[in-house]
Amino acid sequence: MLTLCPVSNVVLRGAARLADLPIRKFLDAGVRFSINSDDPAYFGGYILENYCAVHDAFDLSVDEWAGVAMGAVEGSWCDEARKAVLRAEVEQVVGEWRGRLAMV
């Protein structure tokens, strides 16, 4: 399980641009990771900005986002009861998005 902080990776020049990060390679290889922020006040990227930046750079599908979200739940320090609640919430949101996309 990896913790990725994409915006700060670019700010710190670990990558020239967000699209250069190996996120697509990780997804294709089945590597579990979560997307996080790293000192957002300093690096200018709160969690939502990190998620939006990843989506803009890699155009993740609903299924890929579901995998990222489930990876974050599984990699968390929550107890199993809390993880079960979070997994159910992720499944509910993913189901809602699939329903919305089916109407488009």
From TrEMBL:
Q: Does the keyword Hydrolase apply?
A: yes
Listed PROSITE patterns: A_DEAMINASE
Q: Which GO terms describe its molecular function?
A: adenine deaminase activity; metal ion binding
Q: Does the keyword Hydrolase apply?
A: yes
Top-rank taxon of the source lineage equals Eukaryota
InterPro entries in the record: A/AMP_deam_AS, A_deaminase_dom, Ado/ade_deaminase
Needed cofactors: Zn(2+)
**Which keywords annotate this record?**
Hydrolase, Metal-binding, Zinc
Cite the Adenosine deaminase domain residue spans from the record. Answer: 1-92
Which GO annotations describe the biological process of this protein?
A: adenine catabolic process; hypoxanthine salvage; purine ribonucleoside monophosphate biosynthetic process
Q: Name one GO cellular component term.
A: cytosol
Spell out the PANTHER family in the cross-references. ADENINE DEAMINASE
Protein name in UniProt? Adenosine deaminase
